[in-house]
Design goal:
Elements: E1 26-30, H1 33-55, E2 58-62, H2 69-77, E3 89-93, E4 95-97, H3 107-114, E5 126-127, H4 136-148, E6 160-163, E7 188-191, E8 201-204, H5 206-209, E9 214-219, H6 225-234, E10 254-260
Parallel strand pairs: 1-10, 2-3, 2-6, 3-5, 6-9, 9-10
Antiparallel strand pairs: 4-8, 7-8
């Protein structure tokens, strides 16, 4: 090669992803949490636009915790999502700890500080849970039913639900062998007792979650890898009492798992 010849540009290494695990529903697999957030945000944006076009609004239920927090921040600062229809959004909380709203353990506190405070969603369309009220569950269930009642019959359900999965296989605040797993016919319940990681919770039930139009389950990191393997192994004969996340079986909607490579079993 002559002195004047340009140096060859090194080839960009191609990220080799592991095979997608065989989970119920469909699976989106990305190399990193950042890439995964891109996929979730794009799908949420598309779904929200479609719902507003079809129904005039979108009923969105969000989870708390550290896993989805970067997603909520991305929705606020990324110009690609500037047109999210917040003014047409009803925001619901999947589950809440029975703590004061300014407690750092409050799911809504995080969602309020990262998302609600920086969007133009009307305050009357934000629906936090009054978690310390004695009738927190029935009060929230009534609010949900009355708000959805404005929709045409058959479309009176949540449009998009974002869930996570704990290292013990719980989702929402539906813990293994906890009372809320077997309380059929209710949409919202107070979940308490020795099987519930303290403090007590107010949570959406399987009946409500499984009636949703679209359910996203976001799972990231090596700490979730063993549980993903257990869910795959148990999926053919699921026991939601032991692995509550396997109780998520939408009746007329879509279930989509979002995983980064670190969460995928070897």
């Amino acid at each position: 090669m002559s002195a004047s010849s340009p140096e060859p540009i090194p080839a960009t290494p191609i990220e080799v992803l592991p095979p997608k695990p065989r989970l119920p529903g469909s699976v989106v697999l990305r190399a990193s949490p950042e890439d995964l957030i891109d996929s979730i945000a794009a799908d949420l944006f598309f779904h929200a636009k479609n719902c507003v076009r079809a129904f005039g609004d979108i009923h969105l239920a969000l989870s708390g915790g550290t896993t989805p927090e970067p997603l909520y921040r991305r929705l606020m600062y990324d110009p690609n999502y500037r047109e999210l229809p917040w003014k047409r959004t009803h925001l619901w909380i999947v589950d809440e700890r029975r703590v004061a709203p300014d407690d750092d353990r409050s799911n809504f506190k995080m969602i309020r500080e990262t998302l609600v405070s920086h969007s133009d969603i009307p305050s009357e369309q934000v629906h936090p849970i009054d978690a310390l009220a004695d009738d927190a569950d029935t009060r929230y269930e009534t609010e949900l039913k009355e708000t959805l009642a404005w929709r045409e019959k058959g479309h009176d359900r949540l449009d998009y639900v974002l869930l996570g999965m704990g290292a013990d296989g719980h989702t929402a605040s539906l813990f293994p062998n906890s009372p809320a797993l077997t309380a059929g016919g209710r949409l919202i319940l107070i979940n308490s007792g020795p099987a519930v990681t303290p403090p007590d919770r107010v949570t959406m039930t399987f009946d409500l979650l499984n009636a949703s139009r679209f359910i996203a389950v976001m799972v990231t990191g090596e700490k979730k890898r063993d549980m993903v393997a257990k869910v795959v192994a148990a999926a053919k004969s699921p026991d939601p009492a032991e692995l509550p996340v396997l109780g998520i079986t939408p009746l007329g909607g879509e279930l989509r798992w979002y995983l980064d490579a670190a969460a995928v079993p070897a």
